[in-house]
Amino acid sequence: SRRVAILISGGGSNMAALIASMTGDHPARPCLVLSNVPDAGGLRRAAEAGVPVATVDHRAHRGDRPAFEAALHRELVAAGAEIVCLAGFMRVLTPGFVGLWEGRMLNIHPSLLPKYPGLDTHARALAAGDAEHGCTVHEVTADLDAGPVLGQARLAIRGEDTPDTLAARVLPLEHRLYPAVLRRFAAGDRRPVLIEAGASLSNPPPLA
Ligand code: GAR
């Protein structure tokens, strides 16, 4: 099966969803969780799940991005990674590094790309008066948050939503979307996964 490395900077809830999904007949298995933040909460969760962990602290490289990325690359190669999933990894990667993993690196972003690349996506969707919001999994290319879309999950924005309530409603969609995309991608299928919140298929109500 395909060996998947997951890059994190924080709590790692998407990482945990990805790891939990890679069982049974799944075409991939986790081989490494790599953090640029030494005390990222996700590192402990990964270790508890039995996945090897490593840290490459960007601050140890003093603004030397190529050196930081060379260290990341060494860890990925040492782990035998074939697919790299960015999951709340909050460092911008250079075109040089992205080129090494092009076609093999995915990212999840908390907006309906191409809307709102970058930060503060929930506040920006609200400020724009959008009716819909959600998250996107895409292939990572040299342009930030702009690679080919592999899946999106959407929800309807409510009048009472705040950036926090939106974040809290988008995150569970991320946890559904990212594993669904990875499963397809690892099997060589790049057709987009589309999820509509609240529109999951289920049995009709029983006949009274
Ligand atoms: C997620 O909402 C993810 O989409 C976002 O950070 C959060 C990480 O949460 N990523 C970005 O904003 C990328 N620029 P997690 O650590 O619990 O998965």
From TrEMBL:
Q: Name one GO biological process term.
A: 'de novo' IMP biosynthetic process
Which pathway does the UniProt entry assign to this protein? Purine metabolism; IMP biosynthesis via de novo pathway; N(2)-formyl-N(1)-(5-phospho-D-ribosyl)glycinamide from N(1)-(5-phospho-D-ribosyl)glycinamide (10-formyl THF route): step 1/1
One Pfam family assigned to this protein is Formyl_trans_N
Q: Which GO terms describe its molecular function?
A: phosphoribosylglycinamide formyltransferase activity
Residues given in the record as (6R)-10-formyltetrahydrofolate binding sites: 65, 107
The protein's UniProt keywords, in alphabetical order, are:
Purine biosynthesis, Transferase
SUPFAM superfamilies per UniProt: Formyltransferase
Which residues does this entry assign to the site Raises pKa of active site His? 145
GO terms under cellular component: cytosol
Answer whether the UniProt record assigns the keyword Coiled coil to this protein. Answer: no
- The organism's superkingdom is given as Bacteria
What catalytic activity does the UniProt entry give for this protein?
N(1)-(5-phospho-beta-D-ribosyl)glycinamide + (6R)-10-formyltetrahydrofolate = N(2)-formyl-N(1)-(5-phospho-beta-D-ribosyl)glycinamide + (6S)-5,6,7,8-tetrahydrofolate + H(+)
Residues spanning the membrane: none
- EC class of the enzyme, as a word: transferase
Query: E.C. number, please?
Result: 2.1.2.2
Q: Where does N(1)-(5-phospho-beta-D-ribosyl)glycinamide bind?
A: 12-14
Q: Which residues form the signal peptide?
A: none
- Formyl transferase N-terminal domain mapped to chain residues: 3-182
> Where do the catalytic residues lie?
109
Asked if the Swiss-Prot or TrEMBL record annotates the protein with the keyword Transferase, the reply is yes
Give the record's family classification: Belongs to the GART family.
Name of the featured protein: Phosphoribosylglycinamide formyltransferase
Q: Which gene encodes it?
A: purN
